[in-house]
Design goal:
Helices cover 41% and strands 13% of the residues. It is built from 14 helices and 13 strands. The protein has a 7-stranded mixed sheet with strand order 1-9-8-5-4-2-3, with helices on both faces. α4 links the parallel β2 and β3. α5 packs parallel to α6 and α10 runs parallel beside α14. The longest helix has 19 residues. The protein is globular and about 75 Å long. It starts with 18 loop residues before the first helix and ends with a helix. The relative contact order is 0.17.
């Protein structure tokens, strides 16, 4: 349902780039700086890696491009035993689209009833039946998945794990940050996410082989972002006349680079990222306290988690109840939306190719799920007000 922006008291998302950030950016721009990808991009990548706790990070122009880079890096790596990949029913279209675009064989997995990530029973059944090379895991809405079990399955079946943490920055499980579990992990810095670079994404990994491929694939397929030693190895391997090396393309790459302008914004965002995460986490936990007894919500498998969501998700009891809640939210100037993509298997990009899979939990999310606002400009009294509107809409005492 569309809402008149004049009537909105609480937006579903708000920009983390504020007036202070804009003033800082204006001052920097007045210094006539280098704007395209350069030293600030490398600084931002290094700072992100240090904050996250991974060895390498590669900045791209969006979180969707980050997923694209992960898939294509695997395709170019020579490490795949087959092109089968398990993908999530609950996520975003670009968690899956690159698999289709690059000719993988995607197998859709049911949503977990607790975290809405990959259902462990269905996942293991798919692993046994198909022995895929790759699993794409989404950390849904900043609620960490059951990673002990996932990593046990990884050891048992030997798959490569891609971790989509685009909407989960700052969430952690038993003091381990999301985005540090996968062989590669993606993040998004889009408007309304935990932090913003206007548009932007990141891939992080501990594997130098993946890092080198990511850097080349991000920028046309050339090696300009690699160190001198790796450059020398490639020149020797392919017997390249060093005169031509600035414009030698080693892999068929893209141009999904970001810029130093976006990196400048990102560095400023990181100055306040921990504060943003704390605010979102407090709001999320307040929603749990207020609504957890009345609605079906995501629940982590351990108490040692930090939940850091971009929105708070609830499942109504029915389609009609969801409509009643959304109507009440609109009447009170609260922006909301249905559970974004819901069940990805019910979208034409999927079912025209593979049919509509019967996945009951994903269908429930699709039919009854909705999002409530969560952003750092909100306080706990705002959360309480929104929670009261929601509960009163369904006559919860």
């Amino acid at each position: 349902m569309l809402q008149d922006p004049i009537c909105i008291r609480y937006h579903l998302a708000e920009d983390t780039i504020n007036s202070n950030d804009i003033e800082r950016l204006i001052g920097w721009l007045k210094s006539n700086p280098h704007l395209t990808k350069g030293e600030l991009t490398a600084q931002f990548e290094n700072r992100w890696s240090q904050w996250l706790g991974r060895n390498y990070s590669v900045f791209s122009n969006s979180g969707s491009s980050a997923n694209l880079l992960m898939y294509y890096t695997l395709l170019c790596s020579g490490r795949l035993r087959n092109k089968k990949v398990i993908v999530p029913a609950a996520g975003w279209v670009t968690s899956i689209a690159p698999a289709i675009q690059f000719g993988f064989e995607p197998l859709m997995c049911e949503a977990d009833p607790d975290t809405f990530g990959l259902d462990l029973n269905h996942l293991e059944a798919l692993l046994k039946a198909h022995r895929p090379s790759t699993v794409m895991l989404v950390q849904v809405l900043g609620v960490p998945h059951k990673m002990d079990a996932i990593l046990k399955l990884k050891d048992q079946y030997g798959f490569i794990l891609l971790e989509d943490a685009c909407a989960a920055i700052g969430a952690s499980r038993e003091d381990r940050m999301v985005g540090t579990f996968g062989d590669m992990a993606s993040f998004s810095f889009y408007f309304g996410h935990q932090m913003s670079t206007i548009e932007g994404g990141m891939v992080s990994t501990d594997d130098p082989f993946y890092r080198d491929l990511l850097l080349m694939i991000r920028s046309h397929g050339w090696d300009k972002d690699l160190g001198r030693a790796k450059h020398g190895e490639l020149v020797e391997k392919y017997e390249i006349d060093d005169f031509y090396t600035p414009f030698v393309f080693y892999v068929p790459g893209f141009n999904v680079r970001s810029s130093d302008l976006n990196a400048f914004i990102g560095l400023g965002q990181m100055d306040k990222l921990d504060w943003i995460i704390e605010r979102r986490s407090e709001n999320h936990n307040r929603y749990i306290r207020n609504l957890g007894k009345h609605f079906y919500i995501q629940r982590p498998d351990t108490q040692q988690t930090k939940l850091c969501s971009i929105h708070f998700a609830i499942l109504a009891k029915s389609i009609e109840e969801r409509r009643a809640v959304i109507t009440a939210l609109i009447e009170n100037g609260i922006e909301s939306r249905i559970f974004s993509a819901g069940h990805l298997g019910l979208h034409p990009f999927w079912f025209e190719r593979y049919g509509k899979p019967k996945l009951p939990m994903a269908e429930r999310i699709h039919d009854t799920g909705l999002f409530l606002p969560n952003h750092p400009s909100m306080n706990l009294s705002d959360i309480d007000f929104i929670s009261n509107v929601v509960t009163e809409a369904v006559c919860v005492p």
